[in-house]
Write a structure and sequence with these properties.
CATH architecture of the largest domain: 3-Layer(aba) Sandwich
Strand order of the largest sheet: 5-4-3-6-7-8
Shape: globular
Number of helices: 12
Number of domains: 2
Strand content: 5-15%
Order of helices and strands: HEEEHEEHHEHEHEHHHHHH
CATH class of the largest domain: Alpha Beta
Structural class: alpha/beta
CATH topology of the largest domain: Rossmann fold
Radius of gyration: 25 Å
């Protein structure tokens, strides 16, 4: 093949460039930041985050109030465990209930929320739950989870927990053996938490749920499903949790409702022993993402363009600002938030050390606690999908 003469080669390359067929590699500055031929820095390509899809299926029949209270108190401990995963995951949570409200046709199953990254919404749904007498169809709630939720791709950690205290084999329309085997074939790890004694006759069926689902089996005392240690750092953490709310810049039609939800969940968590401190720690972590209504979080997302947000959907104080003033205001709030979050992380570390010592002194055992069962399963099953976690802290001496 003959080569073009140099002048014609230059003209040919220029034509390709103008037509968009030729890509010129960006130059690199001394600080290794890519630079386009124009001299402007090139924004790094966003790295997609692998998902941890976490589904909680809770029995809400009349005797299960203790289980629901445990989930309310320890939700943020579970979130904080997921936040230690590397690489940083996208945590998507779904909550389903079964065993009380509903009809025979839907198996008394309610999808409280599909997969969401809005953790305040999940907390709100948990605190709104009540209990009532009903029929507990384990097969139906797992089937609903598999059929109605939009699960992540092949690299996602798909982890489902179903918890209850009656026979797992009551559903004749969606038999748990068929349903759970199908779920496992789709890559969903089904974990079974039986709220009763290890020697109860119904425990065998729950063990089989876990075996078929490739998950873990655990028994817990639903009325003693948590181990909570109050620390001298809790009040300060709760105050910082409220303070960080002042750095949120709500935008869009649902901003006010979202800000009210955030504040309400602070109050709900503070009412439970040590839960407010755990929530504060979660709000200082990367998984507490409110980019759907907060400009500070949203501005960190790929493709963010402040100019595309209607003026009347901006916070009141930003509506008369220039474009430059708006950008500066967002960065001011980002800095404020970072400083508060750093203080939260420092106190949270001290609190964890204190709790370790107190648990050892008091002889407290959390191996049968709901959140410990869930956290251990997440470590194992997310680990099998390529996530790594720091080693669990050694028992206090």
């Amino acid at each position: 093949m003959s080569l073009l003469p140099a002048p014609r080669l230059v003209l040919f390359a220029a034509a390709l460039l103008s037509a968009g067929f030729l890509v010129v590699a960006p130059r690199v500055r001394g600080d290794d930041a890519p630079v386009a031929p124009s001299g402007r820095p090139v924004a790094p390509a966003p790295v997609p985050r692998k998902a941890i899809d976490l589904v909680l299926c809770l029995d809400t029949s009349g005797s299960m109030q203790g289980l629901i209270n445990a989930a309310r108190q320890k939700m943020w401990e579970i979130v904080n465990e997921c936040a230690t995963a590397k690489p940083q995951p996208q945590l998507r949570v779904s909550l389903l209930t079964y065993g009380s409200s509903g009809t025979e046709d839907d198996g008394y199953v309610i999808l409280q929320t599909p997969f969401t990254t809005d953790l305040d919404l999940v907390s709100e749904k948990l605190f709104a739950l009540g209990t009532n007498g009903g029929t507990e169809y384990v097969g139906r709630v797992v089937k609903t989870s598999v059929d109605r939720l939009q699960w992540g791709g092949a690299d996602a950690a798909k982890i489902l927990f179903v918890a209850g205290n009656e026979s797992a084999d009551q559903d004749q329309r969606a038999r748990f053996r068929d349903v759970v085997t199908h779920a496992a074939g789709l890559g969903v790890r089904v974990n079974a938490i039986y709220c009763g004694g290890a020697d109860d006759p119904d425990a065998a069926g729950w063990r089989e749920v876990a075996q078929l689902g490739g998950g873990r089996y655990a028994t817990i005392d639903m009325n003693r499903g948590t181990v909570a240690v109050v620390s001298p750092f809790d009040k300060d953490l709760e105050e910082l949790s409220k303070k960080v709310n002042t750095t949120y810049l709500g935008y869009g039609r649902h901003a006010e409702a979202a800000k009210e939800r955030q504040s309400a969940q602070d109050g709900n968590a503070a009412a439970a022993p040590a839960a407010g401190a755990s929530r504060a720690e979660a709000k200082a972590g990367a998984l507490y993402d409110n980019s759907g209504w907060d400009l500070v979080d949203r501005s960190s997302q790929p493709g963010f363009d402040l100019a595309k947000i209607p003026t009347d959907e901006l916070p009141e104080e930003m509506r008369k600002m220039t474009a430059e003033e708006k950008a500066t205001w967002i960065e001011t709030k980002r800095k404020e938030r970072g400083e508060i979050q750093a203080r939260i992380r420092d106190l949270a570390e001290k609190r964890r050390a204190y709790v370790k010592v107190e648990m050892d002194k008091q002889g407290l055992d959390d191996t049968k606690a709901l959140d410990k069962v869930v956290r251990d399963a997440i470590r194992e099953q997310a680990g099998a999908k390529g996530f790594s976690f720091d080693a669990p802290p050694a028992p206090a001496k």
